[in-house]
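Example (one chain per record):
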Amino acid sequence: MTKLRRNHASDQRGSSTGYATRLGIFLIVLVIAIVLIGYSLRHRVSETPSGYVPVTQSQDRSDQRSTTQHGSQASDRDAILPVGGSYEVIHHHHYSLGYNEVAEQAAWVAYPLTAESIYVPNVKRSNWFTADSLVSTRSAKHSDYTRSGYTRGHLAPAGDMAFNREAMRESFMMSNMSPQLAVFNAGVWKELEENVRDWAIKRKELYIVSGPILKGNEKRIGKKTQIAVPEAFYKIILDVTGSDHEGIAYVIPHRLCTETLDHFATSIDAVEQMTGLDFFAGLPASTPEIEANYNASAWRLDKKRYQDRLRNGNQSQ
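Predicted structure:
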């Protein structure tokens, strides 16, 4: 009987040890799963360091009032969108655009540009042009530009959207493209884009609106989609971060340009008259005085970039 009790007690200890072992393994697996889930979530957050809060056309405007990681108020998203014209407004994650179906390109693209997004190490350039599935009437296609004599010119530059893969991918949507001569795209337009990024670093955050100047009688390119070739392009820059709010615009003729960029500087009001658009209508910080006046000397241009344009960009074919 004594022996029987010892065996019975031994069986209980073995059973108890097995349970403890299984429990320990379960806890280890649970901890590993929690760690992996946490890492995944952190990785996904890091993939969107800047720009707009993700918005779809079906979202209610009240859902856009949270703050983005780089400090821009998402409620400013609507405030910086131009008003006017019969354009389909498309909200991508990192910029918005008003699509001009008649011209088969955006009438404007708008987005904030922050110093923080520029400091983020650049992702690899995409170079993969895709049709924009959000355009209800269908955007132009990559093939519409092939052998046309014009490049696919970015309105929201890839360089401004290089802070993560999603932003880079969105910058190569065909709705963000406009026909540009190579000497314009790689020349004066590129120089302006690079100076804008310099200003964003200095001023911490800017609001950018870019688009084509269209009159309605432009040359057309495209195999299936007829795309208007603009006679000029504009870019508007607004700084409302400090106490001294100011803005400036550039209207650049679509040709080989040897003039310095300040030759093309103008007021925001002047671009409104050319395009029929009302810029920053919902942004109280953009006053009539700011839009009517500009001080080109306050927006310092990099002279080396100008020389590089003359030596290299203006030689592009």
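Caption: The radius of gyration is 27 Å.
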